[in-house]
Amino acid sequence: MNSENTQTFLRPRARLMSTLGEELISNERVALTELVKNAYDADASLVVIRFNGPLEEGYGSIEVWDDGHGMSPEAVRDTWMEIATPFRHRAPRSEQFGRRVLGAKGIGRFSAARLGAVTAIKSRKAGGPEVNIRLDWSDFAAENAYIDQVPVQWNVGAPAVFADNGQARRLFDEVTSAFRASEKQPAWTGSHGTLVRLEGLRQDWGAESVESLKRSLSRLLPPPPPAELGVPDQPEFAIYLSLPAGPLDHHTGFVGASEALAHPHYRLIGAIDENGLADLTMTNLTSGQSETLNQYLFPSHGKAPKCGPLKLDLRTWDLDWRPSRRCSTSTSGPATSPRSVS
C-alpha cells in the first residue's frame, strides 16, 4: 500500500538524562573533575570542594564553590537550560582571561546527576541578581514523561550567598591565607561566582575514592615553571579540598600538581625574542645529555615573526618508555593543563 510522505519528530524521554549521565560519565571522580573544569572555564581563580558528612550513599553532600564570573538569568535560560548547546563551539575562549575552555561537551549537568540525587545551584554575575536552580533528578525517572514535560525550578532574587562579604566571601577567606593569587586576578569581594550543591550522594566516599579524586584534580594543575625562565610562580588557578573531621580530614588542603608531570623524559627550555632569535636548551633527562640552540628561526626570510617574545617550557614523555619510540608532548603539563606557554 502506497502512502504520501509524512514527517514526524524524535522526542526524548526524560529518563534520557540519567542514561546519558551513566554513559558519558564513567565514575564520580570524573564527574567532580568535570565540574571543576566548568569553574576554570568561568575564569575562576579558586575552587573549593567541600564534603559534608556523612559521606555515605544516600546521605551527605558535596559543594563546589568558585569565584568565577557566574551566570546571569539570561545565561541560565538560554545556555544552561539547553542540552548540547553550541555555546562553547561559538566561544572556545573564556570571556575574561581568554582561557582555552576545557568543558566543551556540555556535560556538566550530567556530572551533577551522577554525583547526587538533587542538584542545587546558586550563581551570580557581578552587578546582577542571584540565580537559584534546583533539580531533583528522580523527576526525570518517570517512565512515560518526556524531557520537556519535567519542570526545573529556578528563580531570581537579591544577592545572598554571593553578596559583598556574604557566605562565599567568608568561606574563601578561610582558605586563601596561603593562596597567592596571580596579579592578573582582580580583588574578589564575593559578589560573583557559582555554588553547585550535590545532595544525597550516589556513592560512599572513603579514603580510596578521595585519593583518586586528588590524583585526577592534580592533573589539571601544571608543575611550577623552571627558575631559568624567571616567571613568577603564582597560580592562576587553585583547588582546595575540605573534608569533615574524622579519618579523611588529613586530605583537607590545596591540591598539588601531579608528581608525574614534574618528571618528563625530555625538556625544552628557553626563549625566543621579538626578532625571532631562539635561545633554547633541549635536555634528555634520562641520560642527562643537553643540546643548545642559539640562532634566528627565520634567517631565509629576513624579517621578524609576527609574535613574540616567548618563554617556553616544553615537557615530553615517551609513551613506550624507550627514547627511540614515539613521544607525547605537553606544554608545562597535560593537554588540559590551565598553564600553557609562559
Description:
- The chain is α+β, with helices and mostly antiparallel strands and 342 residues long.
- It is 19% helix and 25% strand.
- The protein has helices at residues 16-24, 28-41, 73-80, 87-90, 108-115, 167-175, 207-218; strands spanning 46-52, 61-66, 116-124, 130-136, 153-157, 193-201, 238-242, 253-254, 266-272, 277-284, 290-296, 310-318, 327-331.
- The radius of gyration is 23 Å and the shape is globular.
Give a short synopsis of this structure.
The chain is of the alpha+beta class.
Secondary structure blueprint with pairings:
Layout (H helix, E strand, L loop, with lengths): L15 H9 L3 H14 L4 E7 L8 E6 L6 H8 L6 H4 L17 H8 E9 L5 E7 L16 E5 L9 H9 L17 E9 L5 H12 L19 E5 L10 E2 L11 E7 L4 E8 L5 E7 L13 E9 L8 E5 L11
Parallel strand pairs: 1-7
Antiparallel strand pairs: 1-2, 2-6, 3-4, 3-6, 4-5, 7-8, 9-10, 9-12, 10-11, 12-13
Helix pairs in contact: 1-5, 2-5, 2-7
The biggest sheet amounts to: 8 strands, mixed
Distance between the termini: 69 Å
Number of strands: 13
Order of strands across the widest beta sheet?
Answer: 5-4-3-6-2-1-7-8
The secondary structure category is alpha+beta
Mean of residue pLDDT values: 83
Q: Unreliable stretches, pLDDT < 50, 5 or more residues?
A: 180-184, 323-342
Strand composition percent: 25-35%
Number of helices: 7
How much is the radius of gyration in Å?
23 Å
Helix content: 10-25%
Helices and strands, in order, run as HHEEHHHEEEHEHEEEEEEE
